[in-house]
Amino acid sequence: MSSIVLLGSTGSIGVNTLLIAQRYNIRIEALVAGNNIDLLNAQIKIHQPKIVAIANKNDKDKVNHSSVLCGEEGILELLEISQSRTVVNALVGYAGLAPTMKAAALGKKIALANKESLVVAGEFINTSLITPIDSEHFGLWYLINERPLSKLYITASGGAFREWETKKMASASFADALKHPNWSMGNKITIDSATMTNKLFELLEAKWLFHTTQIDAVIEKKSIIHALVEFKDGSTTAHLAGVDMKLPIAFALMGEIHDPILPPTDLLKIGSIEFLPICEERYPIWQIKTHLLAHPHLGVAVNAANEEAIKAFQQERCSFFGMSKMVLDAYQKFENIKPKNIDEIITIDKEVRAYVNAK
Question: What is the mean pLDDT of the chain?
Fold first, then answer.
């Protein structure tokens, strides 16, 4: 029986990964979770992992398991001692980078849902070990099929404020930004969806995964089309599927799937589909898209500034558009950085965060 290590077991990707693991009789060797100890304990009871790791040492006594590791060091130790050849990394934010690097150094296959790993350090990660758990990148992979392409497209929902007047967006609250029109996700990814930072990150991911800068994004509000590939022969194909992460997860874990994971797309029920441009007035972060794709090493600055800006917005220290201003300011400030290794990335990450918080 095959086995996996699951990092981020209590988030939506983690929960869906466990459903797929049960369906295909994949053993869960280790679980890693953050602060949702009640759900973790329920998962431990069902899946009986050999090892568990959690974010905070203070929660250790609450975990119903005899082998509990804590913090980043605990996660890295867990990866070191685990026997599984596949690691699912569904951790949120910069915290997912060190485990990705560790898993890659150990030569493990990485089913990656942690965007920030490639955004921050794509240049230093062996992408041949990575299978993306992401509807957009899964869609691109599904479509390319080794044919010569000219351009890749991913789609965006438009986020919580896609129908709002831009003047009203300036006074939007953190709670407003979490009201996604299409689905329920974690706080960070939902905020990133509203600012379009999430899509900027996905373009960078695609650059590293598919080795091209000919990538763009458009808004498709129904979230039925996830990706399109424009081929050199002039044709374009699109990937349509329901909004359900179990499909890319199943392919990432199994390699190939021949039985139904999702119900087929009902074309008549969909009705009309339209594509809309991503406007810089509504999504100011989009103005660095072309420059960032040409200078992908600057992803570390964007990510660090963005994580700190989200904290500021949540704590009402800045406005909704203030987040983008903070990121764009840091991007300009650190425009001349060029990390040569992962240690320099770690240093730059700290410098960017300090700069943003000192403003």
Answer: 94
Within a domain: 317: no
Report if residue 359 sits inside a domain.
Answer: no
Would you state the pLDDT for residue 256?
Answer: 84
Residue 316 inside a domain? The answer is no
CATH number of the domain that residue 89 is part of: 3.40.50.720
175 & 125 share domain: no
Which residues, 6 or more positions from 11, have their beta carbon under 8 angstroms from its beta carbon? 90, 92, 186
Structure tokens at 135: 């509807």
- Provide φ and ψ at 26, rounded to 5°: -95, 125
Q: Which of 147, 126, 259, 285 is nearest to 203 (CA)?
A: 285
> Which pLDDT score, from 0 to 100, does residue 329 have?
97
Instruction: Quote the domain boundaries for residue 91.
Output: 3-132
Task: Give tens-digit pLDDT for 267-305.
Answer: 999 989 999 999 999 999 999 999 999 999 999 999 999
Q: Determine which helix (DSSP H) or strand (DSSP E) holds 195, and give its type and residue range.
A: helix 187-195
Query: Are 22 and 43 found together in one domain?
Result: yes
How many folded domains does the chain comprise? 2
Cα separation, 206 vs 215, whole angstroms:
8
- CA pair distance 50, 58, nearest whole angstrom: 21
Rounded CA-CA distance 218/153 in Å is 7
**Paired residues of 33 in beta bridges:** 54
Determine the 3-state secondary structure of 313 from DSSP: helix
Which pLDDT tens digit goes with each residue over 314-355?
999 999 999 999 999 999 999 999 999 999 999 999 999 999
Tell me how far apart the alpha carbons of residues 350 and 270 are, in angstroms, rounded to a whole number: 46
Residues in the chain: 359
Would you state the pLDDT for residue 242?
85
Is the separation of the CB atoms in 292 and 205 below 8 Å? no
Better-predicted residue by pLDDT, 292 or 258: 292
Distances in Å between the Cα of 23 and the Cα atoms of 5, 17, 30, 66 are 16, 10, 18, 27
Concatenate the DSSP letters of all residues of 314-343 into one string: HTTSS-HHHHHHHHHHHHHHTTT----SHH
Model confidence at 183: pLDDT above 70 = no
Q: Cβ contacts of residue 290 below 8 Å, gap of 6+?
A: none
